[in-house]
Structures are given as C-alpha cells and as structure tokens.
Amino acid sequence: MSISLRLSAESLRDVALDQGVCIRPVVHEVYDTVTRQTRLIPTPCGSTRDSKCPPGAAKNRRLRMQQCREGWHLTEEPETDPPADDPEPDDPTDDDPEDDDEDEQKSRRKRSTKRRQDVPDLPRLPVEARTVGKAFTTPTGKTYRPSMFLTLTLPSYGRVTKEGTPRYADYNYRRAALDALHFPKLVDRFWQNLRRAAGYQVQYFAVVEEQHRLAPHLHAAVRGAIPRALVKQVAAATYHQIWWPRHDEAVYGPENLPDWRDGVGYVDPQTGAALPTWQEALDEIDEDPEARPAHVVRFGKQLDMQGIIASEGDADRRVAYLTKYLTKAISDTYGEPEELTRAQRRHVRKLHEQVQVLPCSPRCWNWLFYGVQPLAAEAGMVPGRCPFKAHDRENLGCGGRRVLVSRKWTGRTLKDHKADRAAVVRQVLEAAGVDVPETSRMAADIRREDGIPRFNWKIWDPIDATVPVYRQVMTKSIAEKVRWKSEYELAKQRMTSTGSPTAHGPPAADAQPRS
Hints:
Shape: globular
Mean pLDDT: 83
Number of helices: 11
Distance between the termini: 16 Å
Helix content: 25-40%
Oligomer: single chain
Number of strands: 14
Number of domains: 2
C-alpha cells in the first residue's frame, strides 16, 4: 500500500484511524553524531482518551486488559520485591505517576484513632504473607480456586430519572462533588480494611467509572474469594474523614478576591490583613476540642459481588467489561455533547459548577475563596481556575487515577507489560525470518565507542519548520504500520504452518504490531 503525499491532513487522519496509527504524534528531531544526519521521528502521544487519540486509547485498553487478565487468577505468588524504603509495601499505586499523597503527608497531623460510633466494628486478623486465594475441593474431588468481581458505589444524593438526572430540585450537588473529589481516599481505605479483616494481602485490579447519575463507582477484579457478608461489613464500616479547614461557605467572591503581597502572602482586599496559612489553619483545628471533620465520605448501600472461576468464559467477559470505559472521559457518560438532553446538560453543568469552586487538595487555589492560603502559596493563584485536572469538566471531580492496581497484582509494572507485548510481536517476526529494525526507543540508548550517546533527541519546534511536517511524519507512520501488519500476519501464518512456537509460546490473541 502506498500513501500519497498529496492527501490532505484530514484524509491522512482518517487513514491513520483506520490503520490504528497515533493521530497526535510527538515529533522528535534526532541528530546522528556519527552520520551527522538529522531525522524527524514521531512517537505516540500516549493519550488514553478516544476524544484525543482513538488508536492510542485502544492500545492502552488492550494493555490494561492483559495486565488484568494476567494477575486475576494466579495460583502461585508473583515474584516481586517492593522497595526497601516503602513504608507500606502492600499499598496501592504500582504505576501511579500522579499520586498527590505527598501534600497530605506534609500537612498530616496526629488525629484520634478512635473509630466513629456510627459505623460497625471490623474484625482484625493477622495478615498472612500471601496474595493467592485459597483452593477448595468438592466432594467429587474437583479442585477450584475462585476469585471475585466487586462493585462499590457512593450513596444517594437524591432520586434520579431513567436518564440519570435529578428528579427533584433538592439534589445534593455539593456533597456529590465532595465525594467525587475524595473518592480515591475512600477506596484506598477500603482495601486496607479488607486486608486486615480477610487476613491476607488482598490484591486487586480496579477501575473508577461514572454511574449514569455521574457519581463515581468502582469495579474491581479481586484475587481470591472472601465471604460476601465480610465484604459487606467492611464496605459499611469504611469511611474517610477530611480534616481540612471548613469550606462550607465562601468568604470571598470573584469581585473581591484576596491580593498577593510579597513577603506576606495573600491578604484581605479590604483590611490588608494576611490570610491564615495552610499550617496555621490546621493548627486552629488541632487547638479546637470541638472540631469536626470538614467532610466524611462513605460508600452507599449498593454493593455487588460475583464469584469468578478462571476456566469459565465469564472471566474474559468481565475483563472486557472492566476496561470498557477506560477510553472515555467521565463527562462522556451520557454520550457525545450533541446527544445530551436538556436535563443532562443541566446536570453536568451544575455538578461542574460545584467541582470548580471546591478545594481538591491542600495546594488547591480554591482555598482563597474560603479565606485560607493554599499550601505553598505563590503569586498568581486565581480561585476558580485551579489547574489540577479534578476541576476539568471532563473529569467532574475524578482527577486521580482511573486504574488502581495493587503492587503484587502481577509483580510487574505497566512498563513491563508493555515490553512483553512488544517482545511477542518481535519474536513472531524473527521466528519467521523477518528482519526487525531497532525501534526509536532502542535507538535512544545506543552509544558510540567513547560512551557518548550516538543520538541527540529534542522535541521538534514547529516554528522552525520548512516542510509540512505533520503530513510527512503521518505518511511515514501509516506506511510503516501497514508494512508491519502485513509482515506480522504473514509471520503468524508461517509459524502456524510450520508449527514452531516462539520462545514464549504463541502470541496473545489481541497482540498488535507497534504503532
């Protein structure tokens, strides 16, 4: 297949979508210090959203499906060595680049560990050093090792219609927004409680999605089987208290925002008095014996558990269902913007209005609305315009991780799984005698005899462009993808006809050539 340079950018985009090529590549200028030649090399944008790059989103979903499937029904402990300085080796976040717990750690104070009186007590067992679920043997001698598919939801904020919108005007948008902002903390606390109550290091692959009413909920593949009554007890007893300054009512509005003063920080626009810093606001809470949490987030009563056996077809269907909406933004629950009804548009708008003005973290700019200086305050902060993605319309408060994976799920990181998929394709091609060239990622590590990197990489600057670079790199990428697909399919046919598997066995059913 040949791609003509005369195709318009729009046509090239359509062809790229059809061939599964990234439509928003990051273009690098690569200078070869040996040949003294400069080339333009595109690398995938890495987007996980259909709205930005459908091929990249689909590729990420396939990768997550592989990760989920590989760890769900293990019969032996995964090989993993958590870092020696990790205070909680069994805590989540094996591939969490955006975890903002550092701010919480810096501002954390000692709080009473006494449990709330309005929640049930939990059993606490010695946690066994295992992650694999127990096997059971039937009277007929058949042995099976079940796992679970779990769904957790948030409570009701008011009755909703079939289209997911409030039925009455008293819908609690503020509480809905607060719960969405703090949902990840509640989920982390649930896994901690479940491990202590179940007595082993429960491992999970979980995805945060949006219900039709736009409230986040959690689907999780859980390794091992835990009694249904115990899981319900843990969910009912799990809560997360937000010990932050009060933010029920705004002190300042858009017309009278605090001013910045060098050497002082933010001050009252009328009196010039300095606003309390974040640490001073927490000190005030500590000194008040009557202080109460600013917010408490809990799970709702709806909870669903299903036993899953690896040998049954339902396991693969659940993996596909678990990752089904990973390519969609939270606000896309109702569909494309033009598909929304008037009530749905109003529901999205009202929830977003709350998310825009509530604080998302100690560093959130919105604290200025409530008369408190954010942690690490600096000039230029404008409340209502906080840059953290939880405030974005597409996230509606769910600005954290969409995929939550415990560290011992497979014993490997997402980067390791990505390398596995690439290795499968390369082995298939090499087994069929196809010469596999070095990828740009590999070339970046090549060094000269004197030890100096051979290639100098830098992001291409469009201001210096003298040729239609997008058209050039997209044409090259599409042609390369078509060639690789053809070679890969031919190699699979040859391998099947000769019956010669690769070193790691046959390729996965959904393995794809590189993009």
